[in-house]
Amino acid sequence: MGRPEILSDLRALARVVAVRGNIDTEGWAAGLPMTASVEAGSARIYVLHNLHELDCDPAARGFDIVISGHSHKPGKSERGGVTYLNPGSAGPRRFRLPVTLARLDASRAPWVVEFVPLTPAIGEVRPNRSAGLDY
Hints:
Elements: H1 4-11, E1 35-40, E2 43-48, E3 65-67, E4 75-79, E5 82-86, E6 100-105, E7 112-117
Parallel strand pairs: 2-3, 3-5
Antiparallel strand pairs: 1-2, 4-5, 6-7
């Protein structure tokens, strides 16, 4: 998230399940879990920031969907009966990747995923990679 206000703003809109990411290093983020599991519709979902840190076999644990983000690259794939989803990034544009979110219809299988492109705000501040930011 980067800032606690983002979570507050999202919680004003809907229920939020959030996990700690690599830029969530300040005190406010200490309460965020590294992983979360949630049920939506008929789907059991496992959430983590970086898919490379997946420490379980989702299918063996009964998960239908794994959601991760770290790369900011939107995508969907399936392995071993589990759908892997990266919604992309709804924050500042990273690299040349699109600014997106994903809408997941978990009310029935097969799960329907729609990637929603977001239009950056006028005057969007783009990260300066030479400033030492880890993107």
